[in-house]
Amino acid sequence: MEETNCSNNENNNAQPPYNSSAYSNFASVYDTFMDNVPYGEWGEYLHALLEEYGIHDGLVVDLGCGTGTMTEYLAEKGYDMIGVDNSSDMLAIAMEKKIESGKDILYLMQDMRELDLYGSARAIVSICDSVNYITEPEELCEVFRHVGEFLDDDGFFIFDFNTDYKYREVIGEQTIAENREDCSFIWDNYYYEEERINEYELSLFIRDEDLSGEDGDVFRRYQETHYQRGYILSEMEELIRSAGMVPVKAYDAFTRDEPSETSERIYMIVKKGEV
């Protein structure tokens, strides 16, 4: 693989931009459609990794925190949490959860490519394929560089990513649809193999409470477009090294197994400087 330089942000091959408007309308129904995701099991796995690498307490940053489900989980485990996301709509829901739980969580609206914290953290985590939304390798390298800047010297960065295999062989060119009482969605996937970009065309149908009544329900239609890039492990490792950090370990998601060619999601543990 050709070496990637974090400072080289020139885009010779036009790629879809990091979409800051993603999850604008989806935010209001995100948790409804994600209720089948085993967040408890995912949280246990992530917490076990943090413990394994000596992160038992202290400040932890949830990068790409969305509606704050995992942020709340880690706060419950005793960590001092900061949640970072670039969607005001997602953060608004996270704030509602914070008020309900009473947890002392700080939420920041920031683009992860421009991460700017008030100090360093014991650990930074980023799950649910948030990094796949960074479709330019050079820009992802910048994300890693910023992460390194705000990690304690003995801190760790733990993140997951969807692999190129998953987009190419599993969900690419597939349509996913789901219908609920108050909302439904149609999710069309288009995979561009040469660029390794998966485009999501998301059509949402959300019940309008103000217009619905005894005469029937009224649903409003919204459309969003999302882009994610499929990464491969060797590419991730090179980007991490180019950002001045060290890849420590990679796992096939939710296991302690080595990743394989058919791994759909990979977890990585990264440390700043020498291991």
TrEMBL record:
Originating species: Faecalicatena faecalis
Record GO biological process: methylation
Keyword Glycoprotein set for record: no
Name recorded for this polypeptide: Class I SAM-dependent methyltransferase
TM segment ranges: none
Methyltransferase domain residues: 60-155
InterPro entries: Methyltransf_25
Record keywords: Methyltransferase, Transferase
GO terms for MF: methyltransferase activity
Native organism taxonomy: Bacteria, Bacillati, Bacillota, Clostridia, Lachnospirales
